[in-house]
Amino acid sequence: xxxxxxxxxxxxxxxxxxxxxxxxxxxxxxxxxxxxxxxxxxxxxxxxxxxxxxxxxxxxxxxxxxxxxxxxxxxxxxxxxxxxxxxxxxxxxxxxxxxxxxxxxxxxxxxxxxxxxxxxxxxxxxxxxxxxxxxxxxxxxxxxxxxxxxxxxxxxxxxxxxxxxxxxxxxxxxxxxxxxxxxxxxxxxxxxxxxxxxxxxxxxxxxxxxxxxxxxxxxxxxxxxxxxxxxxxxxxxxxxxxxxxxxxxxxxxxxxxxxxxxxxxxxxxxxxxxxxxxxxxxxxxxxxxxxxxxxxxxxxxxxxxxxxxxxxxxxxxxxxxxxxxxxxxxxxxxxxxxxxxxxxxxxxxxxxxxxxxxxxxxxxxxxxxxxxxxxxxxxxxxxxxxxxxxxxxxxxxxxxxxxxxxxxxxxxxxxxxxxxxxxxxxx
Length: 427
Fold this sequence. Notes:
Layout: H1 9-13, E1 17-20, H2 34-37, H3 44-48, E2 54-57, H4 63-71, E3 79-81, H5 90-94, H6 97-113, E4 124-127, H7 132-141, H8 149-155, H9 158-168, E5 176-179, H10 184-198, E6 201-205, E7 214-217, H11 222-230, E8 237-242, E9 250-256, E10 262-273, E11 277-283, H12 291-306, E12 310-319, E13 322-329, H13 336-349, E14 354-361, H14 367-374, E15 387-392, E16 402-409, H15 412-426
Parallel strand pairs: 1-2, 1-4, 2-3
Antiparallel strand pairs: 5-8, 6-7, 6-8, 9-10, 9-12, 10-11, 11-14, 12-13, 14-16, 15-16
Helix pairs in contact: 10-11
């Protein structure tokens, strides 16, 4: 059996890295219900960025959070606020003539203060997601994009991925592809047939992200089905399949270099709320050489064959009926941020046996208040075990406030206990 060593996304990218990690770069951003979306999670890259990196931001991050990161030796001072209004399209803001000038100043200042040669020449654009628009941005900035824009657009659709899995023999759930323009009657007919298998049906938007365009139906009442149909988007595809209760929901992160080398970043267990909503990850995930690892590697080889480069994540479902591939996200995923922080902590403090990342609902509070509430549980730069690191605090000021943290400990049990304490403090 092939054994996989885990690697680091940051190390594989090279440096300095120019991060553009606002969710609004997703082409389907406008289709995701805003009450589910909250903030654009623009500040996640601020936590993982290294001192030599530059982060392009659509909003100003919480200054207390930036100061805290720097106090514990995390983050970068090179934070560039994009010109324009919050409501302006992100692409337009990135293409503004002033961005290239400001970025060049930041990189040239590093060149003066660094012993490394070719700081500017080695810069790489690391987007959250890369499509043709992002490729255009890279060209405008004069910085290569470490991604595959054309292939990313194809893989963003769950239908394309399912066709790939069928082609290479990866098990997927038996489903039916539904086009909204086919109408309500066709929708009702598919659900009526599918619900006979498991008494529940799951409907996934072909453009979803983190379960944000996913519905579960447990009855075939006309009013229930009609209500879901009215919440779909015209001219879009949906995947309708029987809903199986999961034993676990593994998620596997991989990276393909420009030279065609395949690296496994990490496999974790997804924390799923209400059966469909992504809420975090737990490490370690599944044993090495499991079916998830074997299937993932087979998919990675197929993507390499097609010319894909960069990071991607594959979600699976393990049931009593077997392990099934669900979707491939040809981009950075929510699991990457906490994993990179764990890797950074291991470089500083040695092996970390277990970690957990979770989005925690809070009341509307400031990060300074979070610091006061968590006190000694917050990472202090001296040890990682028994500590938490916040990596998304921008959502604290959203209509539905939350904070994302990664916690580390000697065992899964210890980390879960740590999070119970954190939740009590933040509730």
